[in-house]
Amino acid sequence: MKYSAVLVLQDGTVYRGTAFGCQGEATGELCFNTSMTGYQEILTDPSYRGQIIAMTYPHIGNFGVNDDDMESDRIQAAGLIVREFSEAASNHRATASFPAWLESNGIVAIQGIDTRALTKRLRSNGVMNGIICPANRPLDEVLDRVREIPSMHGMDLATEVSCTKSYAWTENVAAPLYRVAAIDYGIKRNILRMLTAHGCEVTVHPARASVEDILATDPDGIFLSNGPGDPQAVGYGIDTVRSLMGYRPIFGICLGHQLLALALGAKTYKLPFGHRGSNHPVRNTESGTVEITSQNHGFAVDPDTLPTACEVTHWNLNDGTLEGFRSTKHPAFSVQYHPESAPGPHDSRYLFRDFISLMEKHATS
Question: For residue 37, what are the contacts with CB-CB under 8 A and spacing of at least 6?
């Protein structure tokens, strides 16, 4: 159902457009994503829990949607903002139209917004909370509603998106060489596909799984997944990672990267507007090469707080933030970005091979 709608920011800025998807309101932290493709993977990425996504690419929805491109079992984003959406699905893989999919998932979206102006505002003033709602609601009432939305600071969202009990990932498992325990803070399905493609048998554990339960499967390595929210609020995760340190090789990405850093004694901070998109340049300090990476995070690790027994392996070339490090004391490394690339380039998939090599080295040492 289409009707006049507004997007209201917590600073009082109002954008007017037309609603599509589900009827109602959407609230959350506004952020922008610069990807040109992959809207289905983006919307179903658990790292977007509690956020309204503004797509900078102007035309969204023309591929439709299909079951294979789901990164979780449902849409995780709180809402969606686009310049223009497509009613038609013009891809042979499509099983449903984009607006029908949003409606069936209960997601409120708005089109007709000047997403360029919105992105520039968020880039200049930082991310802020906002609401999408019908245009006939009194503005004062809407602003009061926006100011009631909790800040992402101090918010633990990992338990909202994590699995509730351990399970074995069974897709494309053939003659595995290593057993991996993946801690689910909001894991994407393509991460699991990449691990099995590299010869791993994967057991996925809830975010609050105990160290004993994780080690009970006798894993050769520990994987720390991506996820939403403030890493400092995931105290149980920090404690678990700290307890696992040294037992098995550890590979972390995104929230897992931040939790590994916090477990080692480093600190994290909130970025002004985060990194979200599939076109972020990162320099590998060892090879000197530049990787184009897929990213989705609003927090980062402060490199000045890393312990001396750590080496920085990757830097962001846009703003100089830390993108990866390795512990020289423990068999552990992590990156801030998404090497599984769904969506995004494949430049960083070598990191899964590095994880395999680390497990192989640890097994023979």
Answer: 57, 63, 278, 343
